[in-house]
Amino acid sequence: MPGTRPASFALAPPPPPPRDFEISFDFRSIRGSERLELIKHLGLTELADRAARIKGKSLFGSGDLDYLVIQEQAASGMYGPWKNDESKLYKALVSVGFTDKSGSAGGSYGYGKAGLIRGSAIRTVIAYTCFLERADDPGVTRRLLGMTYWDTHHLDRESFTGFARYGRTCDEKTVVPFENHEADKVAAVLGLRVRDPARVEDLGTSLLLVKPTVKPEDLVTAIERSWWPALEDPTLRFHAVVHTSDGTTLHPRPKCDDVLRTFVDSYELATTPQDTHTKERRRYDFKRHRDFDRLGALGLVAEPQGWSYPEQSEGDTETDHRSLVALVRKPHMVVEYLEVGKNPPYVRGTFVADDGINASLRDTEPKGHDAWNIDPNRGDQNPDSALVAKTVIGRIKAGVRRFRSDLEPPRRPPEAIDLPHFDKIMKRLMSGAGVATKTPIQENRPLSIHLHYTRKALDNDLIELSGTAEISFSEHFEGEQATVEVSISYKYLEEDRAGTAAEIVVAPPPGFTEPADSGRYAGILRRGDVAIFNFITDSYSTDWTGQLHVNAEISPESETTASS
Questions:
Q1: pTM score of the predicted model
Q2: What angle do CA 231, 236, 242 make, to 5 degrees?
Q3: Which among 64, 113, 396, 506 would be 20 to 30 A from 319, CA to CA?
Q4: What mean pLDDT is reported for the chain?
């Protein structure tokens, strides 16, 4: 009986023995009485009637009814007591907009609620899940729940949210999931494989999507592009398969794709320590950053005689090509293909995040888990997480710049360079003819900026820049005092121009404040005084090149400025 278990019953039972994780996508199509029975069992008759009354058209038509069944094997299932956000099933289907998950979570290799809703043309999803019994949810190992996600609408002068649940009705307003044997019976009626919590291979979730919006061939392509790290890593023992409605079986094969094969090669570089580097293959290990000893590894590959310097064909432009790095973290799926250069030589790479920073990176991702946000001012994430992502992206770009630089052919010696225009100018100068030029207009700046800074070498090939910026009035300032605004930043050079800003800590002098984290410090400066700003950057790789930017200007009503 629940509540009579010994106190030693673990909250989180030991994980089951390792088994191959497998996910299958089964496209099915039914007609006639089977079609009508499925619509009836899913409770979609009322839904079809409502669609006919609102839009005046049939929701299912008269032809075959297509649906997609997604089944995973040897997973953990959507466990947790049915108490709002304590249940993974509740989070996945009911809690719209809820994004909190454990640091290593990512759904079953990335198929999340948003994708599921879009995957059904009528926005209807059924989930049947099996998990190990837990102390906080005694007596329950299986649940089944369905959801329909429609927009808000009006019918018969009543307003509806558009959300509907398919489950066990407790009262007129409460619908909860079917549980255990009841869930098994409903799953069997819907054509889902009945799961047994005593079998490791049965742990996991089955999903049913009515009227899928994706075709089997397109799904295989999507699996290859997003899940190739898991598919190609033999230590993960992950398998995916797609079954079409006519009985054909499709297997994702990333290495058969010429482009994906290069990313697989770079993944192997990133996950396998290398004794030597070659011109076409390079590995960077990103180490210390604040509280983390290691950030991850970057593998880069190139083909100097091939796609790194592609031949220009008619109608082809350089904008058709990009250098890309696949960003990968737990659970070994591609978060994003990060663009890291538009000019040749083109390279491809994979960054594999260390497990220690997985939670921080996940915190920066939007609901679609398709990017790492580096803006610390985004309100729904920890600023420290954004700093981790920012550091990772910066080091990736620095590694790519260095690799591309080594790939470029040696420059021609100066004596071999032909500069006819320069030679013509020099001939005129030597002959005394000269070249007419305009004398630059001298600026009378009211503020003077003096910089003093040094770069300090740290461990693990890292450095930091620190120093002072001294702001005072020049001899061109007329008056005794004025409000002065000062900004200090340090930006990494990306393709020969200022790009990503580094983290920098600024200590302003007394009387200067930073309104609303604007990055500008305002205060009263008097004639003869010197405002001294101290600054220090976060540690960064020695591979990077950066520029210090200090700007000072008199209050907005004045049009004169001083910059350095």
A1: 0.65
A2: 35
A3: 396
A4: 77
